[in-house]
Description:
The complex is a heterodimer of chains A (110) and B (113).
Chain A: E1 4-7, E2 10-14, E3 19-25, E4 29-37, E5 43-48, E6 52-56, E7 59-64, E8 69-74, E9 83-91, E10 98-100, E11 104-109
Parallel strand pairs in A: 2-11
Antiparallel strand pairs in A: 1-3, 3-8, 4-5, 4-9, 6-7, 7-8, 9-10, 9-11
Chain B: E1 5-7, E2 10-13, E3 19-24, E4 31-38, E5 42-50, E6 53-57, E7 64-68, E8 74-78, E9 87-94, E10 103-104, E11 108-112
Amino acid sequence: GIQVEQSPPDLILQEGANSTLRCNFSDSVNNLQWFHQNPWGQLINLFYIPSGTKQNGRLSATTVATERYSLLYISSSQTTDSGVYFCAVGLTSGTYKYIFGTGTRLKVLA
Amino acid sequence: DSGVTQTPKHLITATGQRVTLRCSPRSGDLSVYWYQQSLDQGLQFLIQYYNGEERAKGNILERFSAQQFPDLHSELNLSSLELGDSALYFCASSPWEGNYGYTFGSGTRLTVV
């Protein structure tokens, strides 16, 4: 089945720093989302981005579907950005489920 | 508030028992998805319903079942519970049948003792 790999697995930043999270996937996909799971366990949708680039405040994401990767950029990080970031991909055929990566655990220090 | 409502938020029960988790999708969304998040397995897809019909099945145990009612809310039934069923159970909804952007509920944390 499709493999979704996220890197780095863990990241510690000082407040105000920038970071790039990467998601690689092993097969063609027609949907991709980035989620943030906060320390209370809530899964928050950041971007629905099957291709192209989107920006929302300090966050932006780029997906290059032909090369099977997506990037999530966090600029001027804040302590509230701490948590786990998941990439989830939807396949081009067959099922309607998302396959989740193992996540990047981010800790932002004040 | 994401618009997807899950109840209860926390549930503690004993092994062998049966529980029901409830999910109300966002207004207008017809698809409901159930996911399980455990420490060792990550986020795993369980099952999807679209407008009352089962559409896709994932790694759902035979002890688990789900349904979607005419008002589009969904229930996930877990029976003969084991310690290993302790996990966060998430419900998500999306407007259509296919794989579009999900919105997740806040989850139900199940602890089996």
